[in-house]
């Protein structure tokens, strides 16, 4: 056994004795999950309520095992990728890393390997798990193979897992519910048993007790208010098995000899309708649970018909025909030709639907003639006779051959033709009388008609070769097909189509493999789609999945310092269940981890609503701290003015719903996978689900929101530059008018007043399909269904979102990046070693740092658990916050002018350069923009329509600009700089889809699981 210790050291080849869990100490995962483009599985980080920490998983099947471990009260610890197991098997050195090690309070440790059920019978997989199982059992531990659990049970556990964080619930309410006898009551009655409390609080508390197993119910069926509550431990089936199935060799592709199953010989014309029924009796062969059995005896019983069957080895057993056929475990092996579900012919409905009215009339007329030949009546029944029927030459007493001759003479065809029609009519009724018969057309070729399959395959092969190359023309592909066909099949073996026909066929192939019409980037994205149906991860309650992403805005903003245009990025958070935007932030040039943390902070503590917003756009401030949040403790300095305005009158409410997310879904940009965001999620109990590399559909709803912002807001604003270079005007940067904070305020107001209250086609209630739901209505629907987990009313919640630095305390304070901080909060801890341990702590103290404002850092005293602000020694000389990057640049700039500059001189020198417009380098310009953003504030009045140009704040400014005369004088401008490439991995054409409707959701089916 080899372990990776928490301090980073590796203990290799440790002898594994037969003792219990005392041989195992807490360790880091032996390996971490890997990412590659094109992978199908999802790796991530699950916040385990058992470990009170993050536990990694390599697939969502492994995530199900973690949910079951959290639900099991006997489990005390779970370790992912716990150790490397090495041993010698059959003379070869073997290595294996188990997926999980589960420590249990009343049992021996459990080693878990997770594999899909269909892979367990593969010889290689079965052999690897087999020897690992034997080694684990020989050491006195338990071994388990985990596969797919029951669908309904897993859905219930996934729903209840949202209530596993104990600190989010009122302990007094939980104690009141525990003291009430709810044994025998239904879940709906429990929700209504406490009218003195809010319904949404009671629902959440009852579901919390279901997760804790203080209350239990049947989890084998989807949860509903009809479920009956009981006392005692919950019973779950799970998917763990202690033994392994027998390995099964893969079948030969050409068919193995000795195949017991008879192939059904299909007739090119089909058989009679009565041939669809298959006789079951003595001698009939059945395929039962994958094995071929033969019926030897049939007899009746009280349960119905039963049969005695014999399998290949000669074992005999009884089966109930009703049970095996109803359960789908049995299938009769046909021995005679007849209709089959996989016939290569179309059904009659499909065949007749392709006919015109004239062709249908001819078929009906021909069928009437055949009915008259067979029965004497055109309707085919003597109960519906027409006038004069039956005619003498078609009476039932007339021989059949004479009737054939009479009908042939009447229609002017041969007797042989009449016989062929009668035979086809007996076989396929009216469909057999269609010109060309039931085999008309070829569904495999689609709209390619009679194209040679070899030509089509070669064309698709050439088109696929250009997936990673520049986009070709149709003519190039057509010219390349001919020589390749000659080289592969020989001269003249494949007939080449004409030029017009080849172009028409390529147009049809474009539907299968886009190559010519869209951009090369878009074609590659389409080619990377799954070949089968998309899976869908369906959120079951608000807050279950929070989507986070960043996009570059297609509009220029203004720099308040230099009054030049600048690029802007929008970072947004969306609740997947209801599509509500819970946080957003507009930043200049690029996004950092502190911006992502600020957006996440808005999800817990939403921004105040505009003072003149309509009532329907304002959300109640449930879960918002009631105390005044001091300006320096917040991530956004603008809140100081807003809090003062709110204190003067009635609170206005907030701009978005307050949520406690359970899992965040992010991409692989540096701000999102940074240690800062990971530590924030770890402290707040949030799981992390990264999307797959370059797969925008994994965050589809948020990607669609970015497109809606562009089409619903940005394109109506001055400075709009379009989604790509080809859509850009001549000089849109000259029209840039709004500052960054104004642009953010406009988007925030549009989201609150328009987006949240407009129906979305992607929002569906499965119980009321077709109901138009807006994000606000869907949020109310989710609260009524799952209750509401109230956001913690902690006024110090903002500190949890700041960046943590581990530093030593000195007699003069704390030093971070050559900046000294001091304050009375350090008294009693100066120069002391902290009680924190681990590879990062090592006796150091955790300090919370806001990179956008280094005037203060924050220290929590262990004795009082209260936060204290430590002030920078040069902070009194600053009239506004200064960022960490700005002070580093200031030192570099001042060092070029002064031999020994201090921080105060360095900052003053940098501010002089900025205000004089001399900050020409990319780094200085970006820092200046961020500083300018932190100093600005903007309020928007009421929204009265969907058109963003009708927003009063926008319309007033636009009217003012329209009244001004153009300045004929041109001024010299510095060369425009758009900033470095965005940190996000999404491109603009990734958002384009076939549905141009703003309410549509092209990426609705997303996040399938392998």
Record keyword descriptors for this entry.
alpha+beta; 25 helices; seven-stranded antiparallel β-sheet; globular; 1010 residues; five-stranded mixed β-sheet; disordered C terminus; 31 strands
Structural summary, described in words:
This protein has 1010 residues and is of the alpha+beta class. The chain is built from 25 helices and 31 strands. The strands form eight sheets. It has a seven-stranded antiparallel sheet, covered by helices on one side. A five-stranded mixed sheet has the order 6-9-10-11-12, sandwiched between helices. Helix 18 (675-684) links the parallel strand 23 and strand 24. It is globular and about 120 Å long. The chain starts with a strand and ends in a 47-residue tail after the last helix.
Which structural category fits the helices and strands?
Answer: alpha+beta
Distance between the termini: 30 Å
Largest sheet entry: 7 strands, antiparallel
- DSSP summary: helix tally: 25
* Integer-rounded radius of gyration: 36 Å
Mean pLDDT: 79
Q: Give the low-confidence spans.
A: 253-275, 438-444, 623-651, 916-920, 934-946, 964-1010
Q: How are the strands of the biggest sheet laid out side by side?
A: 25-29-30-31-28-27-26
How many strand elements?
A: 31
Q: What overall geometry do the principal axes of the alpha carbons give?
A: globular
What is the beta-strand fraction? 5-15%
Kindly state the percentage of residues in helix. Answer: 25-40%
């Amino acid at each position: 056994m080899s372990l990776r210790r928490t301090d980073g050291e590796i203990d290799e080849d440790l002898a594994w004795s037969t003792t219990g869990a005392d041989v195992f100490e807490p360790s880091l995962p032996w390996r971490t999950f890997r990412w590659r483009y094109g992978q199908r599985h999802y790796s991530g980080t699950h916040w385990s309520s058992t470990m009170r920490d993050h536990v990694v998983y390599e697939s969502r099947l492994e995530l199900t095992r973690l949910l079951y471990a959290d639900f099991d009260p006997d489990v005390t610890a779970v370790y992912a990728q716990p150790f490397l197991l090495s041993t010698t098997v059959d003379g070869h050195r073997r290595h294996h890393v188990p997926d999980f090690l589960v420590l249990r309070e009343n049992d021996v440790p459990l080693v878990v390997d997770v594999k899909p059920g269909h892979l367990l019978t593969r010889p290689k997989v079965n052999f690897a798990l087999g020897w690992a199982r034997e080694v684990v059992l020989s050491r006195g531990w338990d071994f388990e193979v985990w596969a797919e659990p029951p669908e309904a049970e897993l859905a219930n556990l996934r729903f209840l897992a949202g209530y596993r964080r104990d600190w989010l619930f009122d302990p007094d309410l939980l104690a009141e519910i525990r003291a009430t006898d709810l044994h025998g009551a239904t879940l709906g009655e429990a929700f209504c048993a406490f009218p003195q409390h809010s319904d949404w609080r009671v629902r959440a508390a009852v579901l919390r007790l279901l997760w804790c197993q203080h209350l239990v119910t049947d989890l084998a069926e989807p949860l509903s208010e009809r479920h009956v509550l009981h006392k005692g431990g919950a019973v779950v089936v799970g998917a763990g098995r202690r033994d392994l199935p027998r390995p099964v060799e893969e079948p030969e592709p050409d068919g193995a000899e000795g195949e017991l199953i008879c192939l059904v010989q299909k007739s090119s014309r089909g058989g009679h309708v009565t041939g669809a029924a298959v006789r079951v009796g003595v001698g009939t062969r059945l395929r039962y649970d994958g094995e071929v059995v033969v019926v030897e005896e049939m007899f009746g019983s009280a349960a119905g018909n039963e049969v005695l069957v014999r399998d290949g080895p000669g074992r005999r057993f009884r089966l109930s025909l009703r049970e095996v056929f109803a359960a789908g475990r049995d299938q009769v092996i046909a021995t005679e030709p007849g209709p089959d579900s996989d016939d290569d012919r179309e059904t009659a409905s499909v065949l007749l639907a392709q006919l015109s009215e004239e062709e249908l009339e001819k078929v009906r007329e021909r069928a009437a003639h055949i009915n008259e030949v067979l029965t004497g009546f055109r309707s085919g029944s003597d109960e519906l006779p027409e006038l004069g029927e039956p005619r003498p030459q078609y009476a039932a007493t007339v021989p059949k051959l004479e009737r054939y001759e009479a009908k042939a003479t009447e229609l002017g065809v041969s007797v042989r033709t009449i016989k062929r029609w009668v035979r086809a009519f007996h076989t396929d009724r009216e469909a057999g009388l269609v010109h060309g018969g039931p085999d008309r057309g070829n569904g495999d070729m689609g709209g390619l008609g009679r194209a040679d399959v070899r030509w089509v395959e070669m064309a698709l092969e050439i088109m696929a070769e250009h997936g990673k190359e520049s986009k070709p023309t149709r003519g190039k592909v057509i010219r390349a097909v001919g020589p390749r066909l000659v080289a592969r099949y020989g001269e003249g073996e494949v007939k080449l189509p004409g030029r017009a026909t080849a172009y028409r066929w390529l147009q049809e192939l474009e539907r299968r493999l886009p190559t010519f019409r869209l951009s090369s980037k878009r074609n590659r994205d389409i080619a990377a789609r799954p070949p089968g149906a998309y899976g869908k991860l369906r959120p079951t309650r608000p807050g279950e999945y929070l989507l986070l992403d960043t996009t570059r805005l297609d509009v220029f903003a203004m720099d308040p310092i230099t009054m030049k245009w600048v690029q802007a990025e929008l970072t947004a958070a969306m609740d997947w269940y209801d599509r509500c935007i819970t946080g957003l932030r507009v930043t200049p040039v690029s996004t950092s981890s502190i911006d992502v943390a600020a957006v996440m902070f808005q999800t817990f503590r939403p921004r105040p609503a505009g003072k003149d917003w309509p009532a329907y756009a304002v959300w109640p401030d449930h879960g918002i701290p009631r105390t005044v949040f001091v300006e320096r403790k917040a991530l956004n300095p603008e809140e100081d003015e807003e809090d003062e305005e709110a204190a003067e009158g009635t609170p206005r409410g907030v701009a978005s719903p307050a949520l406690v997310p359970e899992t965040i879904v992010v991409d692989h940009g540096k701000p999102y996978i940074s240690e800062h965001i990971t530590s924030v999620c770890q402290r707040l109990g949030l799981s992390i689900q990264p999307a797959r590399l370059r797969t925008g559909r994994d965050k589809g709803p948020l990607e669609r929101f970015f497109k809606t912002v562009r089409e619903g807001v940005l394109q109506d604003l001055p400075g709009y530059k379009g989604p790509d270079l080809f859509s850009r005007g001549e000089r849109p940067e000259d029209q840039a008018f709004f500052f960054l904070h104004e642009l953010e305020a406009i988007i925030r107001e549009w989201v609150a007043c328009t987006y949240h209250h407009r129906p979305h086609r992607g929002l569906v209630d499965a119980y009321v399909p077709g109901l138009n739901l807006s994000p606000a209505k869907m949020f109310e629907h989710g609260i009524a269904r799952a209750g509401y987990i109230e956001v913690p009313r902690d006024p110090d919640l903002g500190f949890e979102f700041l960046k943590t630095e581990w530093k030593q305390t000195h007699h003069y304070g704390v030093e971070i990046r050559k900046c000294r901080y001091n304050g009375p909060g350090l008294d009693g801890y100066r120069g002391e070693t902290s009680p924190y341990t681990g590879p990062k702590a090592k006796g150091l103290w955790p300090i919370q740092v806001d990179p956008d404002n280094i005037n203060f850092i924050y220290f929590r005293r262990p004795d009082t658990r209260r936060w204290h602000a430590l002030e920078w020694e040069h902070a009194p000389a600053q009239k506004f916050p200064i960022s960490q990057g700005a002070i580093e640049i200031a030192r570099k700039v001042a060092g070029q002018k002064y031999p020994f500059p201090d921080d105060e001189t360095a900052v003053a020198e940098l501010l002089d350069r900025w205000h004089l417009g001399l900050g020409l380098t990319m780094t200085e310009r970006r820092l200046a923009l961020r500083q300018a953003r932190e100093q600005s504030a903007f309020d928007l009045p009421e929204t009265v329509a969907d058109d963003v140009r009708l927003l009063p704040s926008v319309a007033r400014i636009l009217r003012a600009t329209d009244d001004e005369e153009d300045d004929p004088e041109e001024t010299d401008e510095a060369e425009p700089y758009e900033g470095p490439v965005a940190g996000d991995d999404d491109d603009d054409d990734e958002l384009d889809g076939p549905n141009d409707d703003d309410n549509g959701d092209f990426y609705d089916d997303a996040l399938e699981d392998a």
